[in-house]
Amino acid sequence: MATIQNTNKCDETAVAGAGIEDLDLQEVERHLDYASRSNRYAGEARDAREFLVEQRAAVKDGASLVPSVAGLLVFGRSPQRFLPHATVTLAHYHGNEINSGDVKHIHEYAGNVVQQIDRVVAYLNDSMKHGYVLDGSAQRQEKPQYPALALRELTVNAIAHRDYMIEESAVRIAMFRNRIDWSSPGNLPEGVTIETILEHQYARNKNLLRLLFQRSYVEKIGQGLDTVFAECKKLGLDQPVMRETGASFIIGITGHELLGASQGRLKLTDIQLQIISILKKQGSMNAQDIADSLNQEVKQARSLRTIQVDLKTLVEAGVVDRLGQTRASTYVLRST
């Protein structure tokens, strides 16, 4: 295991035992070309080696170049060979609590930080639910469970702002049925508190953030959390909840309680949405009572048989639960 020197500029510290051959120089060239064309780089480097030194992604050691922590994290062929703690562990639970017997998916994401971000965000986006919320007039509003941009920003923040001097811990993400928590090793920097975090701009790993900016993974330093709060507000969610544990910083967002929730998109008819609205207000009901309430609301007669077909569709879609198997069966919304 490589030892990171005790310095306030951890990400520009040379990593003992690593050499220039541990960096993908072709990837550095592609990065330089992209950053230049995107107007995200205005330096004077003419090739990969000059760029690495200029951006503090490598340190000169006589005639040799030694990768820095930031250099290995972004351009390393196998960063975990030297920085085994530089990974993301994602656990997806069926319920709302950590339970080792209730795990849907658990994986440790390695590779460089760009690969980690892309793979983690792809899983979160693919795994969150889509469905409907109903306003007071029972009008459908199709929404995702979480804002996609917030998922990306919080994943980038957890990786980019973590304390890489803490060698015993990885970034941890816990996805529950109703929320997602991101846990990043290291407390907030001195002078920054949970109450003032949106007012302060700070960067524990300035070189890593600059490289991620050049790659379009971050925008201006200090705007990530502002974006998260704004996206949650736009989607009608509660503000993110933040806390410190003494060894890590944790931020979590609670998603929508969706009707007709599913992984992917579920297409419901207006009548099926009306049935959901009725069950949401009334609780448990039998098919005849649902039909009577529905006919009163939509002012259009529908047969009991037609309502039973709609209920069967909602049960098969996992939106509604049927209690009992007789004509006296009742129906309730399934908890999401």
What report would you give on this structure?
With 336 residues, this protein is an alpha+beta fold. The protein folds into three domains: 10-76, no CATH class; 88-254, Heat Shock Protein 90, CATH 3.30.565.60; 268-333, Winged helix-like DNA-binding domain superfamily/Winged helix DNA-binding domain (Arc Repressor Mutant, subunit A). It is 34% helix and 21% strand. It has helices at residues 25-37, 48-54, 69-75, 113-127, 148-160, 206-214, 224-234, 270-282, 287-298, 304-316; strands at residues 58-61, 64-67, 88-93, 103-109, 129-134, 140-144, 171-175, 179-185, 241-244, 248-254, 259-263, 285-286, 320-323, 330-333. The strands form four sheets. Strands 4-3-7-8-10-9 form a six-stranded mixed sheet, covered by helices on one side. A three-stranded antiparallel sheet has the order 6-5-11. The two termini are 43 Å apart. Residues 1-7 have low confidence and may be disordered.
Brief overview, please?
This protein is α+β, with helices and mostly antiparallel strands.
Oligomer, anyone? single chain
Tally of alpha and pi helices: 10
- CATH domain class of the largest domain: Alpha Beta
Based on the structure given, which CATH architecture of the largest domain is correct? 2-Layer Sandwich
The secondary-structure class comes to alpha+beta
Total number of β-strand segments?
14
Instruction: Please outline the major beta sheet.
Output: 6 strands, mixed
How many angstroms does the end-to-end distance come to?
Answer: 43 Å
